[in-house]
Design goal:
The protein is of the alpha/beta class and 251 residues long. Helix content is 37%, strand content 19%.
Length: 251
């Protein structure tokens, strides 16, 4: 019987996950069989088969992942890759046509590649299976009720220029009010760093290149660092320069 499985690239193409349009893109739930392995399940998702790990009965990420692979999923979401066994199963699943989405604790997008290699995943397998890495962090947003613009100091001006903004760009501060319980902040928003795997990066991964070489190649290909992405919120007055510098201090 001819297989009707969608490859990872075909699922991405149908969903336009890496579209350049700037619009929010999603994978349509009704079009593909989507399954997750989570620990714990935090949100119930309609149209998605979700499984929660349970270490007390030895139902870990690796064992659960093996079980759901027998149910012919098109898209698999792994709550977290914590060990080599889970990483190897995820890579093998992607090589056999599944679109695998997973989380990993690293400082930025490029270091996710070296993290998987350090776990023991062979570089040639990573080069063949990896499509992209999205790093994200959360910054607190200023309270709209009490925020106010101010002229940047000399030091703030240098930091603004390093982010690609004018040195005289107004920076916003908030002293706190009843609306924000005196904190000056109300809510959070995300800043992102998207590393797309092109032929150059694929060769570097295959050859076991280090983190710096991978990051430099990604930047030459147009990747934007976390701090550079957050600069748009400085210009809009949605967060403070101090908050963005705090969250991205290691960038």
């Amino acid at each position: 019987m001819e297989s009707t499985r969608l490859s990872g690239e075909e699922v991405l193409a149908r969903s336009n996950l890496f579209s350049e349009s700037g619009e929010k893109q999603i994978i349509p739930r009704g079009a593909v069989n989507m399954m997750t392995v989570e620990g714990p399940i935090e949100y119930a998702l309609d149209g998605v088969a979700q499984t929660q790990v349970n270490p007390r009965i030895e139902l870990d990420f690796a064992r659960t992942l093996r079980a759901i692979l027998r149910q012919d999923p098109d898209v698999i979401m792994i709550g977290e890759i914590r060990d080599l066994e889970t990483a190897q199963i995820a890579v093998q699943a992607s090589l056999t046509g599944h679109l695998v989405l997973a989380t990993l604790h690293t400082n930025d997008a490029a270091s996710a590649i070296t993290r998987l290699a350090d776990m023991g995943v062979e570089p040639y397998l990573l080069a063949s299976s990896l499509l992209g890495v999205l790093a994200q962090r959360l910054v607190r947003t200023l309270c709209p009720a009490c925020r106010a613009p101010a002229r940047p100091t000399e030091g703030e001006g240098r930091l603004l220029e390093a982010m690609g903004l004018p040195a005289a760009q107004a920076v916003f501060h908030a002293n706190g009010c009843d609306a924000c319980n005196g904190t000056g902040y109300n809510g959070r928003t995300g800043i992102y760093e998207l590393l797309k795997i092109d032929d150059t990066l694929r060769r570097l991964i295959h050859d076991g290149a280090g983190e710096l070489a991978l990051r430099d190649a990604a930047l030459r290909a147009g990747m934007q660092r976390l701090r550079a992405d957050g600069a748009r919120f400085i210009a809009e007055g949605r967060t403070s320069l101090a908050e963005l510098a705090r969250v991205t201090r290691d960038s």
